[in-house]
C-alpha cells in the first residue's frame, strides 16, 4: 500500500513523525507537508505565487518534501507530481488539537483529507484532543488500525474520514463512536493593541461555551472519552431545501 502523509502543523511536527514511524513498516509512505505551520488555513490553495518544494532531511536522512504552501497544496502536488504514482491513501495529521464541530471548516488538517477525496483518493484526518505536548503513540497506532480497516473494506474506498482521539491513557478511552459533525458554541473576541509606531492591530481569541453533551456528535462523544469517526464530504448542498426553494421561486418570479 502507498500512503501519502501530510499535515497542517509543518513537516517537522511530532504527530506527523509518529504517523510515519507507525505506518512505514507496513506501507510505502511519502511525506509531503507544509514547510511551516498552516493551522486554520482551511481549504486554501496557492494561485498567485509558485509553489516552492524542497527535500527535507532529518538526522542527515531524507524525510520528505517540504512545500511552501497549504495542506491542500501539499495533497495536490503530492498526488500529481511527487508521489510517482497515485497513492492508495492520504492521511493528514496527527494534528495537535481536535477538529470537531465548526472547526472542521477551518481546519487545514481536515481540508487536506477532503482535497484527497476530491481527487479520488481515500483519505483520513487524524487529530489528538490536546494543544499541549503529548505522546502521539496510541493515536498513531489507532490510525494504523483504521488503515487496515479501510484496506479490507472496499465500500470505504474513495471516502474521507475525520478521526478525533482523546488525549487519555489508552485504558481510559471508552471506545470508538461513529458520529456526525457537531455544532460548536464559540464566542470570538478581538483584543485591540497598538504597536510602538502607533499602528493598531488585533489578536483574535475564542472561548468555547458549555453545551448539552450529545454523544451522537463528534464534540459530545470526544468529551466523554470516545474516539470519534465521522465520514465527511465536500458537497455542501442543503438537499433538504432544494425542492422547497424551487417551489418558492416558481411562485415568486
List keywords for this structure.
253 residues; two-stranded antiparallel ribbon; alpha/beta; nine-stranded mixed β-sheet; 11 strands; 28% helix; globular; 7 helices; Stationary-phase Survival Protein Sure Homolog, Chain: A
Can you offer a commentary on this structure?
The chain has seven helices and eleven strands. It has a single domain, classed as 3-Layer(aba) Sandwich (Stationary-phase Survival Protein Sure Homolog, Chain: A), CATH 3.40.1210.10. With 253 residues, it is of the alpha/beta class. The mean pLDDT is 94. It is globular, with a radius of gyration of 20 Å. The longest helix has 16 residues, at 137-152. A hairpin with a 2-residue loop joins strand 3 and strand 4 (61-67). 28% of the residues lie in helices and 30% in strands. The protein has helices at residues 14-23, 71-82, 103-106, 108-118, 137-152, 218-223, 239-250, and strands at 2-6, 28-34, 53-58, 61-67, 89-96, 122-129, 160-166, 175-178, 186-194, 200-208, 226-232. It has a nine-stranded mixed beta sheet with strand order 3-4-2-1-5-6-7-11-8, sandwiched between helices. It has a two-stranded antiparallel sheet with strand order 9-10.
